[in-house]
Specification:
Number of domains: 2
Order of helices and strands: HHHHHHHHHHHHHHHHHHHEHEEHEE
Strand content: under 5%
Radius of gyration: 23 Å
Shape: globular
Largest sheet: 5 strands, mixed
Distance between the termini: 48 Å
Number of helices: 21
Structural class: mainly alpha
Length: about 475
């Protein structure tokens, strides 16, 4: 806090971006632009964890299965006490807090270099402006955003040679999500190069690298399969490389040129996948990636992120939407401005800093304005009225949702589910099971069904003797089980 008080510009930057991120994330949630997957499922997990029970994934699965078998994410357990205060907004507030904290970590890291404050401010601004941060904030909550925001603090503590503190950061980052451990291993490799002349840090980082690899193998090959119903790891979606991580590693070693080619082409031949990778590469280049050629250890840190993103079977992962680019933000912010810091001509250094900030801002504006793959621009265009409204009365819908008993079992359409998820049992419509209330709107997307199936299901429910129409207008329909007795 002393650092912030001493630097009014830093305080102003944090305040401005705190407001901007809130205008995106909090407004999206209020206006029903957050969804069952993932905010709804994770909020339901908060409820379970604070009540000392495992989450069973029934928000989105027919058959019960421990949520940790889907992603081994222990942050939700740590953050669950906050849900007693912030309820369905908890994870969004946590996410914004950590992003702002990540920028502060970058500022403190560069302050250790003893250079002018302007360099630290520019690096912080770069992190906050990066398109991957804005796209992540615009789409629900994800623990990799929190982990990525903690990375600068790991760099900061390591720079100070605070081994215990850095070790605690490693542990905190590891428990975010199983795939983050592999990224952290490569970060340790890059930092081994960075601190190759320092025996203490070099040995510490090598030990951390081994721990990260072992953790990745333990969680993905043993723990998560053990927790799952079908005894497999559910997120190996890289069929071009093989059927598992080992086969993928063998393919990468045997076919390096073919592997590099995949980074740039539509390797699954999906009709909407063309140019998605090209757009992503162009935005990174414009955001200053070429400067990292002067510090290739920072490119090394990004290798697993490139691979897990661009080798994926789903073309939606290749683009710039959602949380799938957030890991680039801290590495590029630190690496690029370390390069700039080493320029002897300070006028050129300042000029390049300004150019990088402008081009980074232009990339963020680009994702708000136009993208190759379709994205819901209303989630992120905070400069347009459409971001702050819907084509139905949001106030009336909130009013009706507030009347649903807190202990009732609910089946809710995806955009409504996060607002009702803080309860013992809730399902994503059209999963109904033992639900006592069903909530949906014709004006929302029918996901995970198509429009015809959605209409067929809702018509049948409204005409069924099993359900009574409790409320219905042009905005919302609420059905109550005819035999429902208030508990």
């Amino acid at each position: 806090m002393d650092l912030i008080r001493k630097n009014k510009y830093l305080l102003l930057i944090i305040l401005i971006f705190g407001i901007l991120y809130s205008l995106i994330s909090i407004v999206n949630h209020y206006n029903f632009r957050t969804y069952a997957l993932d905010l709804g499922a994770y909020t339901n997990a908060l409820y379970d964890y604070i009540h000392f029970q495992w989450n069973d994934s029934t928000v989105f699965k027919e058959v019960k299965e421990n949520l940790l078998s889907d992603h081994f994410d222990l942050y939700l357990i740590l953050f669950s006490p906050l849900s007693l205060i912030f309820k369905s907004y908890t994870l969004l507030i946590v996410q914004i807090f950590f992003i702002l904290s990540g920028g502060l970590g970058i500022y403190k890291y560069f302050s250790l270099l003893g250079k002018p404050t302007s360099l630290a401010l520019c690096a912080t601004l770069y992190f906050y402006l990066f398109f991957g941060v804005f796209s992540a904030v615009s789409f629900d909550y994800h623990s990799n955003v929190v982990a990525a925001s903690v990375i600068p603090w790991f760099f900061y503590l390591l720079k100070q040679r605070k081994i215990i503190g850095a070790g605690l950061m490693v542990l905190f980052i590891l428990i975010s999500k199983e795939n983050i451990s592999l990224w952290l291993a490569f970060i340790c490799l890059g930092l081994i190069v960075e601190y190759r002349k320092d025996p203490l840090l070099r040995n510490y980082l090598f030990f951390s690298f081994i721990i990260c690899i072992l953790y990745f193998v333990l969680i993905t090959a043993i723990v998560m399969p053990w927790l799952s119903n079908n005894k497999t790891y559910p997120h190996f979606h890289y069929s071009f490389l093989g059927n598992n991580s080992f086969e993928a590693l063998v393919f990468l070693i045997k076919h390096p040129l073919a592997s590099l080619k995949i980074l740039f082409i539509n390797h699954t031949n999906q009709p909407f996948g063309d140019y998605a990778k090209a757009e992503f590469h162009i935005l990174l280049l414009i955001s200053g990636l070429p400067l990292l050629i002067l510090k290739p250890q920072y490119i090394l840190m990004l290798i697993p992120i490139y691979f897990q993103k661009l080798f994926h079977d789903d073309y939606a992962m290749w683009g710039i939407d959602g949380q799938y680019s957030i890991e680039y933000a801290p590495i590029m912010a630190i690496g690029i401005f370390l390069v700039i810091n080493e320029f002897r001509n300070k006028r050129i250094a300042k000029l390049i800093s300004v150019i990088v900030l402008i081009t980074t801002l232009s990339c963020t504006i680009r994702i708000m304005d136009h993208t190759i793959l379709f994205t819901d621009k209303s989630r992120i265009r905070i400069y347009q009225c459409s971001h702050y409204s819907r084509d139905y009365s949001v106030h009336k819908v909130h009013e009706q949702l507030s009347k649903i008993p807190e202990n009732a079992i609910v089946s809710a359409q995806s955009p409504f589910l996060p607002h009702l998820a803080y309860r013992d049992n809730i399902y994503q419509f059209p999963l109904i099971k033992d639900a006592e209330f069903i909530i949906y709107s014709e004006k929302e997307e029918p996901y995970p069904t198509d429009r015809d199936t959605f209409s067929s299901i809702t018509t049948a429910l409204e005409n069924s003797k099993e359900w009574t129409v409790k409320y219905k207008d042009e905005n919302l329909t609420i059905l109550k089980k005819s035999a429902y007795i208030k508990k």
